Amino acid sequence: MATSTPTRDAYAPPPRGSQQKKPVNARRQTWRSRLWRFDDKASPYAYIAPFFLVFGAFGLYPLIYTGWIALHRVEMTGLDQMEWVGWGNFDRILHDSEFWTAVSNTFLIGVMSTVPQLLVALGLAHLLNYKLRASTFWRTVILTPYATSVASAALVFALVFRADGGLLNWALQFVGLGDTNWVNGHWTSKIAISVIVIWRWTGYNTLIYLAAMQAVPTDLYEAASLDGASRWQQFRKVTIPSLRPTILFTIVISTIGSMQLFGEPLLLEGGTLGATGGNENQYETLSVYLYNYGWNLGHLGPAAAVAWAMLALLLIIAAANWLIGRFVRKSAV
Amino acid sequence: MRITRTVAGRSRRVAVLATTGLTATALLLTGCSSDSDESDSTGADANGKITLTVADFGQFGYKEAGLFAKYHELHPNITVKEDTTADEKVYYPKLLQQLNSGSGLADVQGLEVGRIKELVDTKADQFADLGKVIDVNEWVSWKEKQATTSDGKVIGAGTDIGPMSLCYNTELFKKAGLPTDRKEVAAKISGGWEDYLKLGEEYKKKAPAGTFFMDSASAMYNAVVSSNAKQYYDESGKAIYKDSPSVKQGWDLAAEAADKKLTQGLAQFNDPWKAALRKGTVATVACPAWMAGQISVNAGDGNKGKWDITTAPGATAANWGGSFLGVPKSGKNVDEASKLVKWLTAPEQQAAVFKAIGSFPSNKGAYELPDVKNAKLPYFNDAPIGQIYADEAKSIPETVLGPKDGIIKDTISTQINNMEQRGTSPDDAWKAATNAIDKAIG
């Protein structure tokens, strides 16, 4: 029985029911109180255990194993043969001009898609925040692109941006501006990809902003309008400051998202060209670079090194974000 | 707000514990069941019925020729299922992963010639030795050597090969004032690929607006390189593409074609390329046997009879492409699968595939069959393709293959495309190509 083991701490929480009144039940009561204490302390861990089990199996283990692979020479043709190369793979990708092209592409496309996307989302959310007929309908419509899969969106937009007989060129021909080879140009291809990203994610951010806007107390607006503030002034002086944490959240989410940008560039042209981000790697993102290194060329070591480099970049961005946030908060005070 | 912690809620505690337990169990179960579909193949069931799976890419033509149905007729207990991946560049990495993990493999796997050396070098132990089932002497001499390991094990039976010819659009030739008869065209380019470019300049002088002499310079590059025994590797397995005379010749010709704007600069098999064939904006296409099928499918019925086929420029024969069928050892029906491969690659069946989609047989026995010998393509103005390709196939040199042939070829093609489309200078393009190739090989 459990009573034979020494009590862990002298202080036991007062058990339910009185021990003094029913000494016969004393033993049972101690057992119950112990169980109770155990439950109190241990069960929260049991509740969160599933997450950590899943995270360990599908998050932590791959992360560490990827790091291990990044230090070896491993080929797709022989996964069992690993040869220690230490820092070699990192050295290799850091001296590869294509890697830096991919880094700058990722950042450029990230900025080109995130900034307009969040601005448009903010505006749309503001409009949706007014009293509207069939507001649920509009909110649903706004979210529809988000529900589309990357693959289908990218494939449809590939038709839009096609040089030869593409929908966009066809439309541009009416105003005398046809014949742009969108995916071939360095800037035009990035614009094309940003458009797909903006199209897909604007609605998602709109809804987040909308939710935040509805939490802004109405008396603030009432007070503002009493003071004679216009709608625009209200938006600038009341809405935006109240939304600051939400805006920060969407920026973080969008940054992570654009860092992982993969499907859109891969499918824009498809085939070998998609896997190398175009003829001159003009729209190759880091994820596509990783994919091409690992799956097309079959060199898993450098591919794993790219994955870790991406993690490092994200951490740097997060640190920068934090510093800027602290600076802004300090200067605001 | 009041927070109450009820200890009396014993039943709830039980419920939570149970839920946790269930979640854990479910996790374990999903973990265990993930490989339940480990193999597509099934061993013979109680009735002795067997389902064989064939995984391939692009167009092998077995379905089109009705061969799987026929095999089922001949062997009522065997059903063959085909799983086709359109793009070989998607198919091959998946195949490697499956070979690595030993699961998900089909009973029969298609293997492309650009990859066969790599598979022979690194994965031979995972394929059944077909040398015991098929007679390698039935094939054109060099074909089965490509799939044979140094110790004589044969990991793939040859399907088609790609003897080279030239496909041309007679309508555009006529408009540009060039001869349309296939003998006359052949005579004009008999001196080799330089003659072909000269013909292109002649074409350009009177060319109908918006048309180009060739679809892509990379196709011509490929044709030139393929006509040489030594391409990207030497016999010892060393990559020599930087100094290879055939690569240099092909590259210079491609640069010249790009410089003279004789090419539309299309990446082959992409949508714009297909559209160009449909609209009839290209006058010639370097034409390995299987390309004729591609042209007729993509140019469509509207262009039927407008195309013709003649011999490739110059006297040296070339081979571009062609595949193999291999049997992974781990399958449950290795014997039956090997028999199927033997049957599919036998002369009669290769001839049937040729008739259906134009993939040219690699089994010499097929050349004497009427379906091949007397074959004419109505789409191509009744060109006697059986004769053209069989003559060509006999003189194809035995080429030295390397493990990364496919990737090297693709990388160079991309850079040739840059010269055509963007006017990248040949020097810059070559630098970019060698950088990318070194990365791929290293």
Characterize the structure shown.
The complex is a heterodimer of chains A (333) and B (442). Chain A is mainly alpha-helical. Chain A has 13 helices and two strands; from the N terminus they run H-E-E-H-H-H-H-H-H-H-H-H-H-H-H. Chain A has a two-stranded antiparallel ribbon. The longest helix of chain A is centred in the first third of the chain and has 45 residues. Chain B has 442 residues and is α/β, with parallel strands linked by helices. In chain B, strands 1, 2, 3, 4, 5, 6, 7, 8 and 9 form a nine-stranded mixed beta sheet that branches. The N and C termini of chain B lie far apart (66 Å). The chains are: A mainly alpha (333), B alpha/beta (442).
DSSP, total strands of chain B: 9
Succession of helices and strands of chain B: HEHEHEHHEHHHEHHHEHEEHHEHHHH
Shape of chain B: globular
What is the straight-line distance between the termini of chain A? Answer: 62 Å
Radius of gyration of chain B, CA atoms, in whole angstroms: 26 Å
Rg over C-alpha atoms of chain A, rounded to the nearest angstrom: 28 Å
H/E element order of chain A: HEEHHHHHHHHHHHH
Helix vs. strand class of chain B: alpha/beta
Number of strands of chain A: 2
Low-confidence stretches of chain B: 1-12, 14-42
Question: Reading side by side through the largest sheet of chain A, how are the strands ordered?
Answer: 1-2
User: How many strands, which pairing sense, and closed or not: the largest β-sheet of chain A?
Assistant: 2 strands, antiparallel
Q: Average pLDDT across residues of chain A?
A: 88
Shape of chain A: flat
Portion of residues in beta strands of chain A equals under 5%
Give short descriptive properties of this protein:
heterodimer, A: 333 residues, mainly alpha, 3% strand, B: 442 residues, 9-stranded mixed sheet, 18 helices
